[in-house]
Write a structure and sequence with these properties.
This is Nucleolar protein 58/56 N-terminal domain-containing protein. By secondary structure, this protein is mainly alpha-helical. The chain has helices at 2-5, 9-15, 27-38, 44-54, 68-77, 89-100, 102-106; strands at residues 62-64, 84-86. The chain has a two-stranded parallel sheet with strand order 1-2.
Length: 115
């Protein structure tokens, strides 16, 4: 997966697109959200973000989650999630590729951007 889709930034940009970026309200919000994620729980800001962004998802859409404990937390927080969730070796490779080219993938985007 990594070699095929993320060998370089140009390839990565063909397959991965930043849909939306939402900054934390402040440092306290970021710390609270990070602590919740570590515990497999969903913070208020993450729940709000997911509900707003996933309204736009269609049939067959899948949400890649890096932590399997967070999958259960999201299912509990948003029981009628309009998409499936994936957390497996392929999602790990996806996140690896995104981390490798994060600067290039986020270039040109700004806080609160859609699309």
């Amino acid at each position: 997966l990594h070699d095929k889709f993320f060998a370089d930034a140009t390839k990565a940009k063909k397959y991965v697109d930043l849909v939306h970026f939402e900054p934390f309200a402040d440092t306290a919000d970021a710390v609270t959200a990070a602590a919740a994620c570590i515990d497999g729980k969903v913070s208020k800001s993450l729940k709000s973000f997911l509900k707003k962004q996933l309204k736009k998802s269609g049939n067959g859409d899948s949400l890649a989650i890096a932590d399997k404990n967070l999958v259960a937390g999201i299912k509990d927080a948003i029981p009628n999630l309009p998409c499936t969730m994936a957390c497996d070796s392929k999602t790990n490779e996806l996140f690896r590729g995104i981390r490798c080219h994060l600067d290039e993938l986020m270039a040109g985007g700004s806080a609160g951007d859609d699309g």
